[in-house]
Amino acid sequence: MFKPLTGALRAFTTTGAAVAADLASAATYAVETVGDAVTGRRSGGAVLRVRVLILSDESGRPLCSPDDVLGSVRAAQRIFDAGAGTRVRLTEVTTITEPAPTPALDPRANRGLLLDDITGRLDFFRDHLEPSLIASPVTVVVVRDISGRATGCSLGMTADWVVCQAALFDAARPDTYDETVLAHELGHALNLPHHRDRANLMFPESSPPDRRRGTGLAAWQSMVLRTNRHTVHLPSGVA
Length: 239
Ligand SMILES: [Zn+2]
Fold this sequence. Notes:
Layout: H1 3-14, H2 16-34, E1 45-56, H3 66-84, E2 86-99, H4 102-105, H5 111-118, H6 123-126, E3 138-143, E4 152-154, E5 161-165, H7 180-189, H8 219-226, E6 231-234
Parallel strand pairs: 1-2, 1-3, 3-5
Antiparallel strand pairs: 1-6, 4-5
Helix pairs in contact: 3-7
This protein binds zinc ion.
Zinc ion binds next to helix 7.
């Protein structure tokens, strides 16, 4: 349970300079472009903070650009705002330019992801997470490939991070581009299980371009999204 904290401290002391330099430009970019793109500058209410980490492959080439993920972030903003009255605030999009090891680039899904995590195969990006606390943001890690049919994966409420495959964000590939997956994985991180209605955001399968899942949320799902350890409730007047 203390791994994120030690990891964050380790990252700060060993690779802090490079990461901080990269983070500074990326963060400014994100906040200016989509910080309030959908929900406007209204104050108060439920807020979920989300950060994105983009890994780079073995040769140091980023798996996607910050621009690429914005469509899915905006979709999550629309879905959570309309369905749960929750503002999704993107706090940073950081590209980790240090080449990631293959196990971190290509994690397994579900139980495999849990095993990958326990056995240290994901330590590379675990080192870039924020401390796991109440009201901590959810980090979306952009990986290269998730083994099997999954294109995104979450360990649920126990983890502060989810993984999404880079091809989800490639608008030039309609066979893989899918803006519902990031929001779906955020839903898992906020404690939502799967739902059997294809029109629901938490339907397990989504097959672009013709059979993407829907974006609906039931009233009880809305309540879960608003009452969990990641969503903070700001008093009116606080943006
Ligand atoms: Zn799922």
